Amino acid sequence: MKKKKIFGLLGFGLLSLVSCDKDFNTVGADLIGDGNYQFDKEEWNKITAFTRATGPVQSNNMPLNALGVFQDPVFGTTTAHFVTQLELENTNPNFFEEAEIQATDSVYLYIPYFSTLEDTDTDGNNTYSLDSIHGNLSESFDLKIYESKYLLQSYDPLDPTQAQKYYSSEKALIENHLNLDSGPLNVFSGVSSNQNTQFKFSKNEIVIYETDGNGNYLDSDNNITTDISARVVKERLEPGMWINLNKEFFEEKILQNATSENLFNNNNFKEYFRGLYFQVTQNSGGALAMLDFSSGYIVMQFHTKYDSSSEFIKSEIQINLAGNTVNFFDNNTSTATSGNYQSALTSQNANDDLLYLKGGDGSVAYIDLFGNDDDANNNEIPDKLEELRNSGWLINDVILTLTIANKNNKINTEGTTLNDGYDLGEEPLRLYLFDANANTVLVDYTYDSTTATDAKFNKYLLGGIIEQDEISETTKEGRFYRFRLLHYFNNLMQTEDEDALKNIRLGLVVTETINNVSNYSLMNAIGNLPSTLPLASSVNTIDKVPLANIMNPLGTVIYGVNHTDDSKRMKLEIYYTKPNSN
Predict the structure, then answer these.
(1) Cβ proximity of 48 and 535 under 8 Å
(2) pLDDT bucket at 65, cuts 50 / 70 / 90
(3) Alpha-carbon Rg of the chain, whole angstroms?
(4) CB under 8 Å, gap of 24 or more: what pairs does 525-529 form?
(5) DSSP per-residue letters across 311-323
(6) Which of 30, 141, 209, 539 could pair with 286 as two cysteines, CB 3.0-4.6 Å apart?
(7) What is the dihedral of CA 436, 438, 441, 443, to 10 degrees?
């Protein structure tokens, strides 16, 4: 992932510089000869920015879901649980005269991780690196998989025209309806502890060998062999969650008790077998993975006979992790190295020295770039914006820079660690800046059609990708996020829509992917926002956040606009051309 990140950041930096130079040079080539124009830069000084907690967030049916434990020194510990419905790969299966799960049969669960193939040796063995897993891979957590007896709804029972919403804090809905009689399906005699109480994410590929249906390995001549080197590989799977499940439970649930009506279609099946719940408990540290559970499945092997006179033959059915899902988050801020994050969330400041951004059910920052309407005309348009519109400037570029407050990554010239900042854990790859009033993208997002080999770096001219100053690759000094807002500002310069000039609050969040900009609901709207905008009433309540923010468990702390060191403050730079006065 680091190699991809460096490549993406270099690409962003070079393309940004090239693009900026092109804009400046084009304007200069046309105008500098007549002496009537000059180029300049202004650093904006009217910004206000503050942090607010999201509280519980809608977390059902997301493209990616978190599972595991992630411990961050600033934000504390996040524990992520997950529930999913199930669907038969092939409905209305025929078990013929008799079916049973025998000793040589297996029932297993497989969910692939996000991984990259690094190398393949002469024997065909593959080496992988893992992506989208945060924390310490060497640390385990306790994983228990239960049958859920709670029916996840697709539509709101009170209003069937609306999709049902489930929230990140509602795990009691599931935990109060677990099949405790069967116990955890991944905890039974003979199963390894690394599949339950000491579960770890592994980067090893999974190899399945050919057998004769009775548990005996076969060689290339289809003969039984005990020679490990002679085994024939049936299938190689990318690294993933591979867990053996309780065979007695599935034999009873599917082969013995399920009626033909239960298995006839997946609507009936989801009513009968309502799902699986992945419950996580921290051991000490742990790791947390972002997973596409919809690519996971259960294979149930069994033996069946066509009639009373025939012999048992081996068969299998596949049950997919599909249907409605919900991700649940437990946040424990008391494990943070200080209480600053919790204090920031309860302060309700109108302008914060530090901004705390955290995904999941975490926190969001809101930014007002132009200040208040304090002049005599009282037209509800911020004075600084009116000044800009009346300036006659031609805007060439606009850059918003956000510096990360991480003392481990800032070393002064004498080599001593600076005392301000925070010991941060993993930094988010990217932040997302959006129109908080309309809950939609900025125009610069729409205009940016750039793509990258890794889709997480798409729209790299817009920015928001973590960057690094060239002078401090070793010391990590000066890490920051940067956004380009040229089209946003030019629209404000040119529009005649006064409402567009009054409702201009921006939102800033961590994002898992820049390619998903849909929004999800908050359980409780964020109210009582600072009235720094002329029409603050129109944006005084926030009831949605970007979905991609919920899908990312990481957080970061960035400097606001009130920090004592103005070199680290949130900075807005406007590059412009203006007519000479003489």
Answers:
(1) no
(2) very high
(3) 28
(4) 526/52, 526/53, 526/54, 526/55, 526/364, 528/348, 529/50, 529/52, 529/366
(5) PPEEEEEEEEEEE
(6) 141
(7) -110
Tokens of 460: 């790299």
Tell me the three state secondary structure of residue 266.
Answer: helix
Of the chain, the percentage scoring pLDDT greater than 70 comes to 85
Q: Which phi and psi (to 5°) does residue 173 adopt?
A: -55, -40
Q: Comparing C-alpha atoms, which of 83, 153, 165, 82 is closest to residue 524?
A: 165
Q: Residue 284 is which amino acid?
A: S
Q: Is 562 left (phi over 0), alpha (psi -120 to 50) or beta?
A: alpha
pLDDT tens digit sequence for 216-244: 889 888 899 999 888 988 899 999 999 99
**Burial class of residue 300, CB neighbours in 10 A (0-12, 13-18, 19+):** buried
What would the pLDDT profile of 349-400 be if each residue is shown by its tens digit? 888 889 999 999 999 999 988 877 666 566 778 888 888 898 889 999 999 9
Give the Cα separation of 375 and 317 in Å (integer): 73
E-only strand ranges, 22-74 = 37-43, 48-53, 65-72
**Inter-CA distances, 75 with 274, 357, 358, 553, Å:** 34, 9, 8, 10
Q: Which of 42, 119, 145, 150 lies closest to 396, judged by CA?
A: 42
What's the rounded Cα separation, in Å, for the pair 9 and 13? 6
Whether pTM exceeds 0.85:
yes
Q: Are 205 and 197 in contact (CB under 8 A)?
A: no
Using a 10 angstrom Cβ sphere, with 0-12 exposed, 13-18 middle and 19 or more buried, the burial of residue 179 is: middle
Helix (H/G/I), strand (E/B), else coil: 257:
coil
Kindly state the helix (H) or strand (E) to which residue 116 belongs, with its residue range.
strand 114-120
